[in-house]
Design brief:
Length: 150
């Protein structure tokens, strides 16, 4: 099975209420890392995401260590990677701030990876109207058997 996951791999800085800061990767990184351990040995996961040049080698190295993940859909950008700061003011209230936002993914950047058994795509950084229209066409034509929008 081949699964394409379209979105953003961002760098998270979590400032918990009364605890030490936590830095990690976020966005579709969670989806692809969990999927990598749930799928069979011959399955393939293709993340399609811009990656800032400041962390591109690190992200590639981490993903190559995970089973079933292909890095051919990663697109390096000459800028800092998208960063999300989550600051908790209390255990139940947080403020979210985004830095170094990416441009929108274009259909031409996503299209080579749509020929999959499943496409999971929802991102504020992709042109969803075009994405949905074209992936629905791909699904009807049989090039993509399942489409999930999160």
């Amino acid at each position: 099975m081949k699964i394409t996951v379209i979105g953003t791999i961002n760098k998270d800085l979590i400032l918990p209420f009364r605890n030490a800061p936590i830095e990690s990767f976020g966005g579709i990184f969670y989806d692809i890392s969990i999927l990598s351990y749930l799928l069979e040995e011959d399955d393939e996961i293709i993340p399609v995401s811009f990656i800032g040049e400041d962390i591109f080698p690190t992200v590639q190295a981490i993903l190559k260590k995970l089973p079933n993940i292909s890095t051919k859909g990663l697109i390096p950008l000459p800028q800092k990677n998208h960063k999300v700061i989550l600051e908790y003011a209390s255990p139940s209230r947080r403020q979210e701030k985004s830095l170094f936002q990416f441009p929108a993914l274009k259909w031409e950047q996503m299209a080579p990876f749509i020929d999959s058994d499943m496409v999971n795509g929802a991102s504020p950084h992709s042109r969803m109207d075009s994405f949905e229209k074209r992936t629905n066409e791909a699904s009807r034509s049989g090039r993509c058997r399942s489409l999930l929008n999160s």
